[in-house]
Amino acid sequence: MVLLAAGALLALVLQSRHDTEREARNRSVSVAQTFAHSLGLQDTLKTSDPSKTLQPLAETTRKAAGVDFIVVMDTNGIRYSHPQPDRIGKRFVGTIEPSLKGQVHTESVDGPLGKEIQAIVPVTGPDGKVNALVSAGLTVKNVTGVVDRQLPVILLAIATGLALATVGTALISRRLRRQTHGLGTQEMTRMYEHHDAVLHAVREGVLITDGEGRLLLANDEAKRLLGLPEDADGRHIADVPGLDRRMADLLLSGREATDEVLESGDRLLVVNQRPTHPRGRPEGAAITIRDSTEMQVLTSRAETARRRLKLLYDAGGDIGTSLDVVRTAEELAAVAVPRFADFVTVDLADQVIDGEEPRAGSDMRRTAVSGIRSDHPLYPVGRLIDFLPSTPQARGYGTGRAELVPHLADAPGWKAQDPPRAQAIVDYGIHSLIAAPLMARGVVLGVVNFWRSQKQEPFDEDELSLAEELVARAAVSMDNARRYTREHALAVTLQRSLLPRALPEQSAMDVAHFYLPAQSGVGGDWFDVIPLAGCRVALVVGDVVGHGLHAAATMGRLRTAVHNFSSLDLPPDEILARLDDLVQRIDHDGEGDDVNGGVLGATCLYAVYDPVSQRCTMARAGHLPPLVVAPDGTTEIVELPAGPPLGLGGMPFETAELDLAEGSQLVLYTDGLIEERTRDISEGLELLRAALSHPDRDPHESCRAVLDMLLPPRPTDDVALLIARTRTLGPDRVAQWEVPFQPSAVGAMRNAAAKKLDEWGLTDLGFATELILSELITNALRHGSAPVRVRLLHDHNLTCEVWDGSSTAPHLRYAATTDEGGRGLFLVAQLSEHWGTRYTPDGKVIWAELALPGAAGGTEAALAAFLDVDPI
User: Fold this and answer.
1) Which residues pair with 287 in a beta bridge?
2) Parallel, antiparallel, or unpaired for β 69-74 and 130-139?
């Protein structure tokens, strides 16, 4: 500032001197010209003594004009006037030649008054001739005096400026020190260099805007990311060319933004914006921008990999939840939509659905379809498809390798299968396909088709690998389901072949039954209805422990054994004892073999109902007790001794007898009906009682009610249910006589029987009945013991029973030609349909059944054959 003041002072002095000299010259010229053109000057010059007039006039004018001298001279330079009168008449000091030529001339000379600045002006006449000269001027000391008088003012102004500058500098320095935190110039310079280097070198865009929306700063990275021109600084944001509209809206809003993602062209930018407060109020914003496009690509790839792993993980848990081929196919189709494909179809070889091994070149049946919409033009579920060799499905089924068809519209081999449907599929928007074969243990079971419609990009090789992995995992579950289906079908077939297909004809009970094998595997539950002699009927329910073919085969052996033992007409406890021995022998036969060869245990309930006495005799071996529903709706569990399960041995079985009123319902069942994971047996029994407490229902309706209430949706054990409503053989169909223990009673019994048959309208059976009764009564009287009793039962056949107190059973044999006896039972066997012996606590009963007249193979044919003999 001092140097500036000194320079300014020097410049002002020089300028003052220059201006003063110029002013002096101008004034000299003006005064000289004024005086030269004054009126009367020409006339005065023509007088004899011009000085007399001109001297006082020049002095007066000089003083009034403020010049130091006014000199009037002739053309030779002789003065007519001068401030010093002694200089009048002397020659003028200066150059007059230019003025003699009519020019105004100024110069600086050393004259009589000292250093002078003077102007010489010609005085011309009307003819233009120079008649005289006038000179006016100032001395240099007077000019310098003017400057000297101005110098104090100049110095004062300079001093004032220096003082103000000093004060301003101090204030500015203080503010700068406060704003720069005391940093010096070097530090400030270094900081600026670092700031500039960092600002333009970082890989993050930086923008600064003011409160009016102008762009104050944009570093190189910001210009690159946003595509800004080099001259973007200073422009209003709305006027910056190339700036994305959404980015411009964000910058103009001035709002705070944190990691806000915006698309700018093909870039994905993360923007952070914070308002600036330089003076305590918002006056703009600072914005940072970073490019996350590559990071987004990496994140997208990582997310894609995570989704694929999640898909495979979910597939492991969602596919194969049941050992059902169709259900497994549906689970496979459902798990891939919409996370991998928009539509998924599963086509299986027709044999696979039935559990068989697929054959090469066999047709495939569409087993499952899943999609984001239901109005698709793909083949529906159940359609049997014969894929052409040109289709990717047929090639995949034949080679076992997955095929990718990125553009279905350009795949003629695929279109050849069904051109109209293929065009409809393309028109629908489905444009890409992956056909992946279901291969397990070297066998191709079918093909899974993944279709894409919504996503514009076709399937790629990475997705082909994912489809192969997904299908490979599902194929194992599919093959397990297929193998289980085959084994289950074999077991069910075996079991159903061993179970009764239709209930036998009998009139003692109305019977309804239900059987359902377990979903997890066929078990050994069985039931049976066995007609017995004397219009009786046996009801059997059993359960072999375990599942599978072995359990079903064991069940068949036990059921056959029960039939055989029932034919002996043994009481229930003896039948269970014989079954127990049989199971023990079966277990012993399996010793040394596989552990699955044994029975491991079985339970059984055997009941015999007599419609004549309305008495039911039953015994059980570890089985659940039966229920009885009285005609009034009362339901009770029969208190029946449990007995050990079959196969344990060493413990006797006990029987129980109860009288059942006509119309009572006897309910036999297995534990699969009442026992479930969500409830115990006691709760199941109460539900069973509640379902049966409706006496107005027939057995079939009661069976349906029980199943509706108790049957689980997916039973884990076999379910067997048998409901029988009792009937009664009334007194009008029963005839009974006590036989005196003497031979003469035989004829009386024949007559009584013939009379009863006439009452029943069975006269045609009289001869055969009389022969049978004669033989049986005679044998009882001859070989048995008292008491002897005869009973006729009229049901769907005619039953003849002879009771006696002996336990000795007769035997059928062929008599020799010389034997006098031994032909009686042979006659009975020939005339009756069935005959046999059963034992009672008091003795035995020998019975014979005759078919009613009109029945096929009735007694008439047997009697005709018997009477057709050659005469002697």
Assistant:
1) 207, 273
2) antiparallel
How much is the pTM? 0.55
Token pair of 459 as six digits:
């399937």
CA distances from 370 to 108, 305, 516, 838, 845 (A): 118, 23, 31, 66, 70
- In sequence order, the β-bridge partners of residue 371 are 343
Q: For residue 294, is it left (φ>0), alpha (ψ between -120 and 50) or beta?
A: alpha
Euclidean distance between the first and the last CA atom of the chain, given in angstroms as a whole number: 177
- pLDDT, tens digit (0-9, with 9 covering 90-100), for 178-212: 777 666 677 777 767 666 666 666 778 888 888 88
Give, for 597, the enclosing helix (H) or strand (E): none
Using CA atoms, how far apart are residues 82 and 707, in angstroms rounded to an integer? 158
Q: Cα(598)–Cα(647) distance, rounded to whole angstroms?
A: 10
CA proximity to 35, closest of 166, 123, 143, 125: 123
Measured between alpha carbons, how far is 671 from 542 in angstroms, rounded to an integer?
10
* Tens-digit pLDDT profile for residues 340-397: 899 999 999 988 888 888 887 778 999 999 999 989 999 999 999 999 999 999 998 8
Q: What percent of the chain has pLDDT over 90?
A: 23
The pLDDT score that the predictor gives to residue 503 is 77
Beta carbons within 8 Å of 209's beta carbon, 6+ residues apart: 215, 216, 237, 251, 254, 284, 285, 287
Instruction: Give the pLDDT mean for 436-447.
Output: 90
Tell me if 243 sits within 8 A of 228, measured CB to CB.
yes
Q: At what angle do helices 766-783 and 859-867 cross, to 10 degrees?
A: 80
Q: Which residues contact 80 (CB under 8 A, 6 or more apart)?
A: 45, 50, 51, 54, 55, 71, 72, 73, 74, 88, 132
pLDDT category, 725, cuts 50, 70, 90? very high
* Inter-residue contact 332 to 442 (CB < 8 Å): no
The candidate with the shortest Cα–Cα distance to 333, out of 315, 321, 356, 349, is 315
DSSP class per residue in 359-380: PTT--EEEEEEEES-S---SPP
Q: Which of 460, 430, 443 is nearest to 369 (CA)?
A: 430
